[in-house]
Amino acid sequence: MTYKHILVPVDExxxxxxxxxxxxxxxxxxxxTVTVMSVISVDPFVGVDFYKVAPxxxxxxxxxxxxxxxRLAEIKLSFDRDGITxxxxxxxxxxxSEGIIQVADEVGADLIIMGSHGRTGFKKLMLGSVAQNxxxxxxxPVLIVKV
Length: 147
Prior knowledge:
Shape: globular
Number of strands: 5
Low-confidence stretches: none
Helix content: 40-55%
Oligomer: single chain
Distance between the termini: 25 Å
Structural class: alpha/beta
Largest sheet: 5 strands, parallel
């Protein structure tokens, strides 16, 4: 099977960069288009007195947006350097797994390559797993990269 459009969700973790490397290699082989994306997650301050922390919330989201844009621009250069067509996207205000599946649908991705931290047991139960959620909910194949 050949994959024409690969989606690569990234965050600031080293495992994301391992997924980027895998996507870069596969995209070169298959002459695929790649979309690299980041999700700025739902409000981490839910339940906090809004009027006391409004400036902190604004600063948090502005910094998160800047960090995501900077990260995507850096990654885009790797694909550009190798002549691979690449697009970037930032999705805001959604649960990461939902944002990933939404973008996969919007761009017509036929493969998602993403990293997994490999949490198990109690950590997985408490923290959830974005990779696990995408794997079980995605209508397209998902390649999980672990280090």
